[in-house]
Amino acid sequence: MTAPPGSRLPGNPPADHRPPVPPQRYLPPSPQSWRPVLVRPLPPPSSVDAAEYRVGRIAAAFAVCGGVLLVIALAALIAIVRADDPALTGLGVANLVVVAVVLMGAIAAAIVLMAVRLAGGGPRTQWRVWAIGGGVVFGVPALLMLLLLLLEVGISWRGALLSIPTTTFALWTFRRMQRNRKPPWWLVLAAFGWGSVVSSYFAQIVEGMMHAVIRSDVQPGTAAVIGHAAAAAFPEEFVKASGVVVLVLLCRRRIDGMLSGLVIGACVGLGFQFAESMSYMTQGFDSVLYQHWYRQVTGLLVSHATYAGIIGAGVGLATQLKDWPRRIMVATGGLLFAIAAHLVWDFCAMGHFYWESSDANVQLFIVQPANLIVLKGPAFLVLLTLVIVALRQETRSLHRQLRAEAANRLGAVTPDEVSLLLNASRRFRLRLRTLREGSFSAYQQINRLHTAQLELAFTRWRRERGENAPPGAEEALRQRIYRLKAGAPA
């Protein structure tokens, strides 16, 4: 098999004595030129359990979920005691019943976990008990939240049909921001699900209770406007931040830093934006069209996606730091910035402290977008700045890791491939050329090869930062790359 210039297949002698070869266009080897290669044996299995480092994270994630349910229970209890709104009182009773069921399930799961530990169950067994028990315990309230969302979508089905394409485009846009390692769609949809199901339900209960208290105890005026703005900003950003933290804890291998956290946070925000849009699209079709223009077109990327994206950037950056004080500082800083940006908008919107026009068309197509640019534009510019900074930091780190991998002359990455792997546009053009000149299977193979090489660089980067990883992860990726380069089934 003719290897790419400068590369050395496993088992072949070094090529230091060969004359330099001028750079050539890199193309995947043709099927006719593939031949078996000597594959390096995998290292002996390590005695360290690959699931050991996940037990603490899944426990922390479920603790955050429990905190969210606790806040819902407190809000429900306050709504029952005060009885400011009959609808909230009835909903509060239902919530307390659900929380009581969840508490009993959590106690049963804790007993099972304790029994497993006393029986000498290893970390992997304990992780499975945590996963199954947590899935059952938290699946009950999540299912009820999902049913309520589906009911709302069914009522505002016309708005849902209009909003699905715009929301899908927004999810695709934020996912594309991770040019070097895109998150899998299941993680994007999980983030969207937290925002649309958990965050929206939490906001309805907690925020509804707080609005009822303010309407009852605060006289109309500036203080009431500030109170209502705070009642919207604080609970919504808190529950969105909780979702980002839960996903980072459960999917730590997919979160590589600030950019990954930002994208996950933005997807949580888009889920909340979708559910909020459905709640406003329950009136006539004219109202549906207005809300769609306002929430799913002009305000889609600059509202909850921006706030939650900034929160996610703080949480993602915290994963790259080693000491807890700085982790807490950057994560809290992102949350406080998002709350402040949200609070400014809600205060101006609820108090009508922005431009308004008596002409409906001017208000809809000129004044309203201008208000969004002035009041939400600065936060969106901060988000874009974070994307640029995070992408540059990630690219520099990958460049260092790819050059180090190419220098060890193991053949997984060659010097000529480094610049190609760091350029998303070149990778995309190469895949298109491969599809045009070769076949779809060749296109898939080159795509898998680039993905595996970049995954190797990310794995090396995580090891450099001192993060836990499954034993033999780098060598396993090299074996996969060798097979892809040799044309054998991956």
Characterise the protein shown here:
- The protein is an all-alpha fold and 490 residues long.
- It is built from 15 helices and no strands.
- The protein is globular and about 75 Å long.
Give the topology string: H per helix, E per strand.
HHHHHHHHHHHHHHH
Helix fraction by DSSP (H/I, runs of at least 4): over 70%
Sum up the overall morphology in one term: globular
Number of strand segments: 0
- Percentage of β-strand residues: under 5%
Characteristics:
490 residues, mainly alpha, 74% helix, globular, disordered N terminus
Quick rundown:
With 490 residues, the protein is mainly alpha-helical. It contains 15 helices and no strands.
Walk me through the topology:
Blueprint: H1 55-82, H2 86-118, H3 123-155, H4 157-176, H5 185-217, H6 222-250, H7 258-280, H8 285-298, H9 304-319, H10 324-350, H11 360-407, H12 415-421, H13 424-437, H14 440-464, H15 473-486
Helix pairs in contact: 1-2, 1-3, 1-5, 1-6, 2-3, 3-4, 3-5, 4-7, 4-8, 5-6, 5-7, 6-7, 6-9, 6-10, 7-8, 7-9, 9-10, 9-11, 11-14, 13-14, 14-15
